[in-house]
Specification:
There is one protein chain. The protein is mostly helical and about 260 residues long. The chain is about 45% helix and about 0% strand. The chain has a two-stranded parallel sheet with strand order 1-2.
């Protein structure tokens, strides 16, 4: 994602790589959003969290840079509160070369030491080394499938439209996140357990897990041109950004 344009528009229902909620716009967004809009309870009253809920969470993303960013941030969240990660998001962007996977994959000992000394991110040795390893695995997947988007969206045919009445109805994992986790691990990714994978699916719009009373649920459930008529893919084939899933879940990549 870029920072040159704000996504703080509650009516948006498709992710644009030029958009991202940013701290300086969060308060303005919170003030101008109608109080009549009922949200998922987890959004709370934190301005940054509300902006993320209203404009980004659950919006289908097909931008490789954003998909990579969210994979790293979801892994960084393990054991922590998501608001903590949101508060450090700009620091992560700066520390991790604006999410340029090619640059991150080349990080060496000096970069690792720099990251471990950076109070603006989560200074966990395993998470930092995992992010670097994930950049390498990410590039490998891009080479094999043409894009990470092409690969990761094989785990769902189209965004799954759930109808959760309460947060208690939201599972920690699903068969799709189980399959994604297994395949990512086979590809060399770290911090990609099934629970993290399901959170990733929610964040990137592979599932719509806004509760039905949340104003965003209906907005994201509306049909969109880019998923109409989508067909399951044969692994490694098709155009960038096409939704699909291999008919046999045990064969996500060509051997």
């Amino acid at each position: 994602m870029r920072r040159d344009q704000s996504v703080l528009d509650p009516n948006v229902n498709s992710f644009n790589s030029n958009y991202s909620p940013i701290a300086r716009d969060s308060e303005r967004h919170l003030m101008r959003t109608s109080v009549a809009n009922k949200r998922c309870a987890w959004a709370g009253e934190n301005a940054l969290n509300v902006a993320y809920h209203d404009a980004e969470w659950g919006v289908p993303s097909h931008d490789d840079q954003h998909l990579f960013e969210m994979l790293i941030l979801e892994g960084a969240q393990a054991g922590l509160n998501w608001v903590t990660i949101l508060g450090k998001r700009e620091n992560y962007r700066r520390a991790f070369a604006n999410w340029d996977a090619k640059k991150i994959a080349r990080f060496g000992e000096k970069d690792f030491a720099r990251l471990m000394a950076d109070a603006g991110i989560v200074r966990n040795r395993l998470k930092i080394s995992g992010a670097i390893d994930n950049a390498k695995a990410f590039l490998k997947v891009q080479r094999e499938f043409g894009s990470f988007d092409q690969y990761i969206w094989q785990f769902v045919v189209a965004p799954i439209q759930n109808k959760r009445a309460t947060l208690r109805d939201v599972p920690a994992s699903t068969p799709e996140s189980d399959a994604m986790s297994r395949d990512l691990k086979k590809s060399g990714f770290r911090f990609v357990g099934t629970t993290i994978c399901y959170a990733y699916m929610q964040a990137t719009g592979m599932v719509n897990d806004h509760i039905v009373s949340c104003f965003r649920h209906a907005e994201l459930a509306q049909p969109r041109a880019d998923i109409a008529g989508s067909q399951p893919l044969s692994c490694g084939q098709g155009n960038h950004g096409t939704h699909g899933r291999h008919g046999n879940r045990t064969q996500y990549r060509q051997e």
